[in-house]
Amino acid sequence: MTLFSLTNRVSRVLSASKVFIPHRRIQFHSGSHPQGNKEPKAIQKQEFWFVKVVCTLFVYSQPLDDASLSYLNNNLTPSIEFEVVKWLKSPTFGLKFLELSRLNLNTNHSFWTYNLLIRSFCCMGLYGSARLVFDYMKIDGHLPDSTLLGFMISSFGRAGKFGMARKLLAEVQSDDVMVTIFAVNNLLNMMVKQNNLEDAVSLYKENLGSNFNPDTWTFNILIRGLCRVGKVDQAFEFFNDMRSFGCFPDIVTYNTIINGLCREYEVDRGHSLLNEIRLRDDCAPNVVTYTSVISGYCKLGKMEEASALFDEMMSSGTLPSVVTFNVLIDGFGKVGDMLSAKSLYEKMASFGCIPDVVTFTSLINGYCQIGDVNRSLQLWDAMKLKNVSPNVYTFAITINALCKENRLREASRLLRELQCRNIVPKPFIFNPVIDGFCKAGNLDEANRIVAEMEKKKCDPDKVTFTILIIGHCMKGRMLKAISIFDKMLSVGCTPDDVTVRSLISCLLKAGMPKEAYRISTITS
What we know:
The protein is an all-alpha fold. The chain contains 30 helices and no strands.
């Protein structure tokens, strides 16, 4: 088939094109534009037939003969080439057409052709192909604009291709192409979110010598990442550098670094920063600021300081949130002051705060710690009335407290309720009940709970196996204890010294030195 025979059979072009298009249903993406040219140049109506002919010829008549190449060379324009690539509806075919025309035709593709292919390949996850088209673009004398660059950098970053993104940034800066601060910040943010903090800090430092001017958001991103991993002193270095770049910390900056300090138990430094904000005219502490410091004092058990700051917050006109009440209730519960915890719980409604599962779990934990398990069970009833569903920790705390009081049947009932809920069970919830039944000599019930646990795809952990091994040893069921020990090893759970010594000691007392020696040899 030649180009000239095709021109006489235009009516067959559409039906032929439909053969390959459904197999490549790719949505092309356009968007970026060069300076001063906001959209690709439209082609004339009479040129559309030629676009369809070129597409069909390219797909079905490879390799093209000299006559066809000559005709295309004389008639193709950048606008028509863009329409051909778009009409092919496949970035892979589009790239092949681009490569063929670069090698065999004396035509220049427009910016829009490269833009279309790069965006489409990125949306398909074919970042190597997108990078190849970008290289062709530069070789052919086109420079990307800031919008296309931002799109590529974001696409590479979302896919975790940080090396490609950094290399692209370095290249375009050497070409004096403008990179927006938004694009750089977006990449830094994705690096921090995907736990590539060191690379983010390195990227920041690499770009300081170029036209990169960090803004407050830049510093907030890096400070948040450093505080999250406990590197608060390094975060302070960035905090102190802000003004040298003409940036000033906003409330997000202060809240991030205060929260970081309080998480590292440097609550007094966090409180000092809070006081610093209060002296500023352009920034004021909000409920997040106060709650971070209050939470820090609660974790240290300094409930007087936490209460004083809570009063100060309300005097300043800042209303507490549910989180504020929760950290205070939890703090009072942990120091055993349930009167204060209950008083705060009762005040929540007057501030428009509705108790949630964290509120109830903190109260339940507080009552369990002072040995008032019955009060904690009453709170379960209150949760049902308020339609608040317990979480895994609500179950774990209550079950553990019941087991300590040897109320194993009630604990078992809660375990059954847990299994009826959409909660992923954890071994630490089952272990106290299994331990309780083992110590009570009811190994059959302990084994039944383990079987239920495994049925729910909750694998026993080291503590579970240790409880079972020692429990069976104490009842003289040595073969069962050995069987559990072997299973423990087979699932890749390494026993600790307590488990090994206890089992070996019981085997020797039971007159089973060979088994004791075998276990000693395996574990050593």
